[in-house]
Design brief:
The protein is mainly alpha-helical. The protein has helices spanning 3-16, 18-32, 36-62, 68-83, 86-99, 103-113, 119-138, 144-148, 154-167, 175-201, 210-236, 241-272. The longest helix is centred in the C-terminal third of the chain and has 32 residues, at 241-272. The chain binds fe (ii) ion (2 copies). One fe (ii) ion binds at residues 116, 119, 215. The site of one fe (ii) ion has 3 residues, from loops.
Length: 290
């Protein structure tokens, strides 16, 4: 494909995601308009965000014509596990907040849980669509269930452990930091990822990017809501700053690792196929998770 066509595709995607790109531009102003405590949280987590940005830029450049479909297949299969328990995690964290007397945040979390339910089904459907195209092109017989049954990667395992740890800890309110950071990830990197995939595969791929596309737009509102909720909470309970910072950083690290895991699996795919037993040999570069 010519550079000109790639540019045209990017432009069309950017138009479609204009609301998200506008919010990206306003992000610094949004943060600057919030309290000193919120800004202290923001600055403390910023190095993890900067590191993620570097990795995402690297990833976007590394994904090419050969790896893009295997990457999306693994991204969706692992994404299924990243999201299948989300509504339960948020509800449990909310209930634990209520039990500890953090009434306002607890109620907000419990109410918000419903909005985050069923996302794993979006991933499963995306995966099925991707596999239909991949199987046809390569004469393969891969199934969504086989991909989903592959062992979890370090990024997925860390993400699950982080949620479970927060729920059972003395600081279940840290769920709001996890959500703030992860929903911001959709807003910051959704356009980049969609743009790269459309550039390589054309607009037809959007049908199999339903999770990313939905969230890139939807999570603009969720991010604003999360920031507001965390800002209010921090000012009512300044002693919670440190656990919030820890959870925010850990969420970004785990999510970055998940995306890198999907890429690493896409690199192995050619030699090892997608068979579940192949994943036993799967290792990741843990240096990158630091
Ligand atoms: Fe969501
Ligand atoms: Fe959301």
């Amino acid at each position: 494909m010519s550079l000109f066509m790639a540019k045209v595709r990017r432009l069309i995607v950017n138009q479609k995601l204009a609301k998200t790109l506008e919010y990206q531009e306003k992000l610094d102003d949004d943060v600057a308009s919030r309290s000193d405590l919120f800004q202290c949280y923001w600055q403390s987590v910023e190095p993890a965000r900067v590191k993620m940005k570097e990795r995402m830029e690297w990833l976007s450049a590394a994904i090419d014509q050969k790896s893009v479909e295997p990457f999306l297949i693994h991204f969706s299969a692992l994404g299924y596990h990243m999201t299948s328990q989300v509504a339960d995690w948020i509800t449990s964290a909310g209930q634990a907040c209520l039990a500890q007397g953090y009434m306002e945040l607890g109620q907000k979390l419990v109410k918000h849980a419903a909005h985050e339910d069923g996302h794993h089904e979006l991933y499963r459907n995306d995966l099925k669509g991707l596999l239909a195209g991949y199987n046809k092109k390569h004469g393969a017989g891969l199934t969504a269930d086989a991909l989903i049954d592959m062992p979890p990667t370090p990024g997925v395992a860390s993400y699950i452990q982080l949620h479970e740890g927060v729920i059972s800890s003395a600081h279940p309110y840290a769920q709001i930091a996890i959500e703030s950071e992860i929903e911001l990830v959709s807003v910051l990197y959704g356009p980049m990822m969609i743009g790269r995939c459309v550039e390589l595969l054309g607009f037809g791929i959007l049908k199999q990017l339903s999770f990313v596309e939905d969230h890139t737009l939807l999570d603009v509102g969720h991010t604003t809501y999360n920031f507001k909720a965390m800002d209010a909470f921090l000012n009512e309970h300044p002693e919670t700053l440190e656990p919030l910072i820890d959870a925010g950083r850990a969420a970004i690290r785990a999510y970055t690792q998940y995306l890198e895991d999907a890429f690493d699996r896409s690199q192995l795919a050619g030699q090892l196929s997608f068979e579940p037993e192949s994943a036993q040999d799967f290792t990741v570069n843990t240096d990158r998770a630091a």
